[in-house]
Specification:
single chain; alpha+beta; 4-stranded antiparallel beta sheet; about 15% helix; about 25% strand; binds zinc ion; Transcription factor zinc-finger domain-containing protein
Length: about 55
């Protein structure tokens, strides 16, 4: 999957039981929903991800 903003390769991992995608290049953050092909952007997860990345 590529970033919808800058088309860079997204990093994918599981967070809170859901598949999350992030783009290190532009800071895009989203989750993949099973019923939809387009990831949903959730900016409010940024603080949680910051904690996740520093551990
Ligand atoms: Zn991007």
């Amino acid at each position: 999957m590529d970033c919808p903003r800058c088309e860079a390769t997204l990093d994918t991992y599981t967070l809170y039981g859901k598949e999350a995608v992030t783009c290190e290049r532009c800071g895009y953050l989203g989750v993949s929903v099973e019923h939809r092909s387009e990831p949903k952007e959730i900016e409010s997860w940024q603080s949680a991800l910051d904690r996740f990345n520093t551990e």
